[in-house]
Amino acid sequence: MPEHDTYRRLISLLDTSSVDYQLLDHEPEGATEAVCALRGHPASQAAKCIVLRVKVDRRTTRHVLAVVPGDRRVDLDAVRDLYTARYVGFSDPETAERLARSIPGTVLPFSFDPDLEVVADPEVVAQPKLYFNAARLDRSLLMSGTDYERLAKPRVERIAGPATV
Questions:
Q1: CA 82, CA 120: separation in Å to the nearest integer?
Q2: Which of 60, 67, 90, 140 is within CB 3.0–4.6 Å of 109 for a Cys-Cys bond?
Q3: Apex 36 CA angle, 112 and 77, nearest 5
């Protein structure tokens, strides 16, 4: 699915769900710290989205979209414990793009693929203002963490590691 189709699907979901959101246009940027500076908010209010490969056992591999605050890292050990997995690591770029239906730097905290489960840290859904790139490098979205949780229906678990330096 091309990047613009994912964007349209997101906007359609938001419009049909009657949630308050705001679109923010900015210079093209996908790195969390840089795009937070462009949007003018602390990184803690951003949703950082990372596709992970979770090997539950020798035959079972799952893919998880980990959503953590922008100033934090994904705690791979916490994700491994959550799934009682043998291994957790970052998905290869091709698989991540296919499952997230967008390119790196534009991954939404939503999943439109049944093979990609969303797990969000409690700090993400607690944000009164939650920012993320809207499946485009040049446009972001602002909505409440409460509305995000209601629409995305993530599994909410502690998966954020210490703040990044």
A1: 12
A2: 67
A3: 60
Question: Which of 89, 67, 48 minimizes the C-alpha distance to 157?
Answer: 67
The dihedral formed by the CA atoms of 85, 126, 162 and 69, expressed in degrees to the nearest 10: 90
Give CA–CA dist 119/93, Å, rounded.
19
- 3-state DSSP helix/strand/coil percent for the chain, to nearest 5? 35, 30, 35
Instruction: Copy the structure tokens of residue 64.
Output: 């998880």
User: Taking the CB of residue 83, how many other CB atoms lie within 10 A of it?
Assistant: 17
pLDDT tens by residue, the chain, 165 residues = 344 799 999 999 999 998 999 999 999 999 999 999 999 999 999 999 999 999 999 999 999 999 999 999 999 999 999 999 999 999 999 999 999 999 988 999 999 999 999 999 999 999 999 999 999 999 999 999 999 999 999 999 999 998 765
Domains of the chain with CATH codes? 3-163 (3.90.960.10)
